[in-house]
User: What shape does this take?
Amino acid sequence: MSASSTRAATPHAAHHGSGPVVWAAIIATTCLLLLVFQKVLWLVVPVLLALILYYFLYPAVRALIYRGMSRDAAASLVTLAFLLLVGLVGVALMPRLTSQLTQWQETVDRYVQGGTQLLDASLRALERHSPPLARARLADTVAARLAQSTGNVADHLEPVALGIMAWTPSLLLAPFLAFFFLRDGRRFKRFLGAAVPNAFFEKTLFLLHEIDRTARAYFQGLINLTILDTLTLAAGLWLLGIPGPLALGLICAVLAWVPYVGSILGGLLVVLVAATDFPSDPSMAYWAIGLFGLVRLLDDFLYMPMTIGKSLELHPLITVLMIFAGGAVAGVAGLMLVLPVLGVVMVIGETIGLIVTDPRLMARHRHAKALRRIQASADL
Amino acid sequence: MVKLFRVRKTTPRLERLHELSLFVNLTQAELQIVDGLLHERHYLEGEVIFDAGEEGQAIYIIASGEVLISLPEAANGRRATQAAVIDPATSHPLRRQGDTGLVAQLGPGTFFGELALLDNSPRSAQARAASPCELIIFFRDDFVSLLDTHARISSKISRQLACHLGTRMRSMALSMSAHQHLL
Assistant: This one.
């Protein structure tokens, strides 16, 4: 029998992508999961970091396994080496960090001051061109409110320090979880596979593989997106003449891991730098805002669909819409988590849809169940 | 460090794997690596392992029991109902799909579904357990990953696969020439 005729003859081969019901279920499940994840962020964030760490360390573990080392030993060795490296870097940087802490406080104060001055200058320029605004004394009102709300940098240190202390135990979970992912990931896959009926076994194996591939592709996409954002921003900032374009671009690109909110923070940072380093030239800050707007558009409508969206094989429209939906459902956490969660739910949903709508697979499962029932009651 | 890379003692499971034709050339250390990639399934007599036309994702190695490989009947539309019919008296299916087109009956140590390891083509025949059997399953993507990262193991397995395919082609050619001779 030829391949084409066999393919045409089977219900499985007749399947052409998931239907609207499956997609509605995928989107609803994603939103529901985001709502749940928002409530257990203390666990979700370390798991997410552990996954990034897992995909970062996995090649080293695999290399050791393929050189004859047991999985347990390879996972332990690589995790220990990573922790040792982080510890050494921490110890090496600690004296420099502590010595610069007071200087950082002054620097932050200087940049906040620069930003406030830019805002004040902009509002006064507006007042000059708009008599109603001048009569409302907008610049004075905003300046007074900013002075009340911002205060001194030292005032904000306490909540930041408390936040770091509260999150530290949770974040310390990440390497611990990554170690177990590295050591027992395959066992978990086998454990899950063993629980699946024979009729669906191959499909389940494929599903687990696809989930792994999707997660890997997502995190690789994230790295690609960071590189693209860094390069675009650095090029723009360099053209504007703002100092340290590459470092600023990298910080903003990492902040952009949180869609929208991260970008706004990054934009604010660049504007503050531009306003402080060029106090006599406010147009530089406006140019920086323009550049950021352009990069934001590029990021949302070109880079993200090209990298993360493409890695998840999502339609760009769905990527953009789901980012909005994630933000609406679960805020900042939703923005961060929506794409990886959607990617995994999509793979699971499509595979379950494929199995449930395949009459042949379902018939085989019923047949196997009947055989087991008969075997169990054979001598009764 | 040297101790970590030392070849560990063999286990009954590894010895059993070593007896399978696909892994006969692998060393203990290599078997341990492959063992981490394998899955085990148990099938009852009459249970379908895979159907013709299905997308193949894995190769199956028979650890115990027997498996029937058969070409499907022309009328695939009736298959689902036929396959579910079971004789309550004997506990055996009354009529099995593919009984009319039996290609081979395979025993312990042999393997089938190997084309799935090489390409994405659909299964060319149906596999069904002829007796209660235990199968070892090697997923295609694990094999591809092994090809990318461990050339020695994959070359040994590939050589066994090539030998198996060569034997099968020779027997097919022989049977075709015998058939022509009879005509």
About this structure: Chain A touches chain B at residues 1, 3, 6-7, 9-10, 12-13, 62-63, 65-71, 73, 77, 186, 190, 193-194, 198-199, 201-203, 205-206, 209, 359-360, 363-364, 366-368, 370-372, 374-375, 378 (CB under 8 Å). Residues 11 and 358 of chain A are 6 Å apart (CA to CA). Residues 71-129 of chain A form the longest helix (59 residues).
